[in-house]
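Sanity check record (used in CI):
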Amino acid sequence: MNLSIVNLASIAVFLSVFLFPSFNSTYWLKWRASLIPSTKFGADLIVKNGVIFTSDPSFPFANSMAIRDGRILRIGNYSSLQMARVQLEGVNRKDEVVRRVKEAVLNAKRGSWILGGGWNNDLWGGELPMASWIDEVTPDNPVWLTRMGGHMGLANSVALKLAGVTNLTKDPNGGKIIQTADGEPTGLLIDAAMELILSWIPEASVDERREAMLRASSFALTRGVTTVVDVGRYFPGSSVEHSWQDFSDVYQWADSSGKMKIRVCLFFPMETWSRLHGVIHRAGRALSNWIYLGGVKAFADGSLGSNSALFHEPYFDDPHNYGLQVLEFESLFNMTIASDMSGLQVAIHAIGDKANDLILDMYESVALKNGKRDRRFRIEHAQHLAPGTADRFGQQGIVASVQPDHLLDDADAAIRKLGVDRAQKGSYLFRSLLSSNALLALGSDWPVTSTYPLHAIRTAMNRIPPGWDTAWIPSERLSLNDALIAHTISAARACFLENEIGSLSTGKLADFVILSSDSWDEFATGGSTSVNATYVGGIQAYP
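Expected output for Protein LONG AFTER FAR-RED 3 isoform X2:
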């Protein structure tokens, strides 16, 4: 059946904009290919600037490949070929982790950093990795491998020595150094403690960051995404300057040179609230039709996967651990008061039930102190809630910024870490939040999870984790209409952009997608649907 663009646009009416709670500018995208004979990196040939399908499930796409003596020397992002990177997504065996690290070392210079990540210890039974796993194969290279989610990382002994991390090193505020029974660091660092290693890793150049942003934007367009919320390269313990550097060096550069491809709403570290207030006072919130200044972000806790999400009760598999409060409460409260008083929107990361309750209590106190206004406080993730907490989101007018695809990785882990009863009653309460009249905004948290909104919509509707035959907490499933609204107009409203984007309405920016479905019924019943075209401002941006 052949429908005109006008008719197909009606199918895409709610798919005009998808907003991401996190947008990381380290991913690679589709652009024209070139072949470069080269001796750089010891390669006979470098293939770059292309979309390379690898057939490797842990690293399905790359943009560059180095070849030597008829064999693949390295594959990945061209700008990172100078630095060995280890792809550990989907790896389900300890020996495979070691093998991939060893392979990276063979292709790296002595003393250079071996970086990578994406590992998920749940896939190999839950045992946490240690530096001793990889020390033998990395005697001369520092190594840093982040866990999926980005709240935990593994350093080898060379990296620990370089950073001066010993059995005498104290846990930083908002972080934890995992130790053996004898008090020696295992190599695992959580949240703010990761900065002990990260501060020693060479920074990406301005040109690399610009190129990464442009490629990431192009990739987003292939998935039907026209607007993202970028909360920057910030986490507890890291430099607050990273977000501001990307704002000036990358986004403002792209905007002034006419290179922006998608719209962005930027959030900055809460510690820098006064700087953001000054920029908004001088230039306003909308710097152009491409860049909007959203507000400030902070963290209340860590993540479930790293056992650092903050709960009222201890972890079922770690009975002395309640999680981690990554910022001292009084400091967080004072910064929130000041940010809100200056008119900034506040977003705070909270995953565990205690973290969510603490932030809801704090938001209530701040609103009482600063007076009534349309502030749209946000809680990022809101993954695990105590009984009655979902209702508070609606009562207080809080935005629940949730990422459906996280539940695909968390279902089995939540049951193991929280026990069946707690996991079943309080995890990913989409329907409960919506029923409480909370503003439910759905997104992806890319690159932690997939950047495909159509997939996230199905997840919100079905809630069937990998390997399961039935839905996890089926009463919390959303309808197609609710999932679409939460990804579009509600997501736009969650960052004060509902008058510009989020729906196809008279006077709004003409951002929309055309899907492959021939009818609404085909799309609604779960048929195979993909993005055929993406339009930004009425101009076709993909393909």
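Confidence is low (pLDDT under 50) at residues 1-41. If this sentence no longer matches the regenerated tokens, the check is flagged for review.
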